[in-house]
Design brief:
Blueprint (H helix, E strand, L loop, with lengths): L7 E7 L3 H11 L8 E5 L9 E6 L9 E5 L1 E5 L5 E5 L4 E6 H12 L5 E5 L2 E7 L2 E6 L2 E11 L15 E11 L8 E6 L8 E8 L4 E10 L5 H16 L6 E12 L14 E3 L15 H16 L12 H16 L4 H11 L2 H8 L5 H8 L4 H13 L6
Parallel strand pairs: 1-2, 1-11, 2-8, 5-13, 11-17
Antiparallel strand pairs: 3-7, 4-7, 5-6, 9-10, 10-11, 12-15, 12-16, 13-14, 14-15
The structure holds flavin-adenine dinucleotide.
Flavin-adenine dinucleotide (FAD) binds next to α1, β2, β3 and β16.
Amino acid sequence: MNKPLQSQFAFIIAGGGMAGLSLAYYLSKSQLGDLPILVIDQFPKNKNDKTWCFWSDQEEEFDKVAEKKWDSLWFHSQTNQSKLLNINPFQYRKINSVDWYKEVHSALANKPNIQFLEAKIQSFSYRGLDVNVSTDQGDFCASKKVFDSVSAFTCDFDNPKHIKQHFLGWTIESHFPIFKKESADLFDFRVAFGLECEFMYVLPTSSKKALFEYTFFSGNLREKTYYRDKLKAYLLAYYGFGEDDYDLLEEEYGVIPMRPMEGKPQNLHDKIIKIGTAGGFVKSTTGYSFLRTQHVLKELVVNLETKKHKAPILKDLRFKKWLDKVFLQVFIDQKIAGSKIFEALFFKNSPQKMLRFLEEKTSLREDLSLMLTVPTYPFLAAAIKLFMNGNKLP
Ligand SMILES: Cc1cc2nc3c(=O)[nH]c(=O)nc-3n(C[C@H](O)[C@H](O)[C@H](O)COP(=O)(O)OP(=O)(O)OC[C@H]3O[C@@H](n4cnc5c(N)ncnc54)[C@H](O)[C@@H]3O)c2cc1C
């Protein structure tokens, strides 16, 4: 990666991860695609640092790099009831970040106006009408916009009342064929014994290869050894695997903030626009953001092209946001095991309705009918607590 010869750009994309590269990709395909653009990241982004999964009932932009797609998903309850959910017309997809980075970088390689810089961003400041981005490799100016995916999202990792999705995953290759690759395990709550929402998530991509992810939706992070011990115990209990029965190919660890974005909604009048996790693109009750980021950024580029500057970056769906807060308050209060909430939702509603609900695509009537299927007392108590706190999470 060479240092750019110029210091003045139309757009600067701060952070060339999932959101930053997606934006560069959609800009490159738009009428704005010939303007000078700089993408800055501290790393070369050529490692498999993440797995992105999502569901959709239509073709999506990066389907061709998906390692695997599933038409059905298992749900295992805490009390050992198992249900195979046929999610047709949805498909659950898995993309390995290294394949995606390669795909996007190669799509951008023939655009000389899009330059890349490996540097650590230190600050943003206004210089007249431009925005200046200071890095350890020098200063760069954007005349139109800076898109910021490097700022931290407000979530205190040490505060147990700030819910996070925290997980550690292993991709393993077993020494003999054992996995049934036709279906993935979206939730396996058989591992949950307390009130915290914890589950195993299993994605078999071949008869010998699978990703196992020990996951929490909770406030208390654990030492990495804790998740690793849970993975070992699960592999032994459910597959009879001792450590000699498989090779550990990769490990991934993540902490994703599960909090709604607060403050004034952003629009294209802003000169510095936060995108990705920094911009609140993560759905706060699921931790998913890959697909949403694609849709939001595609629309953002169309709005930029057509100069619809008033359009909000994220749709302001107030009732959905309030519902998310109620769910998060229920996770904080722990008056009921997290597993029981998902069990009620997935056992009493069709998987298609649930997937649309989690994507914020259900109508108000559907939302209300779904809320009738959750345990009443903890949700009512959480809604009242939220109301008493001025609709704010702790
Ligand atoms: C391990 C993991 C697995 C996930 N799995 C899923 C999933 O299955 N499905 C889903 O929908 N979501 C998933 N997510 C959530 C979310 O989709 C990802 O976190 C996604 O990468 C967020 O995109 P982003 O651009 O905001 O952040 P990133 O992709 O992390 O990009 C931010 C970039 O900014 C760079 N950067 C940071 N600070 C600086 C600095 N000071 N200077 C220069 N560069 C900097 C980083 O190097 C990084 O490349 C996962 C998250 C993690 C951590």
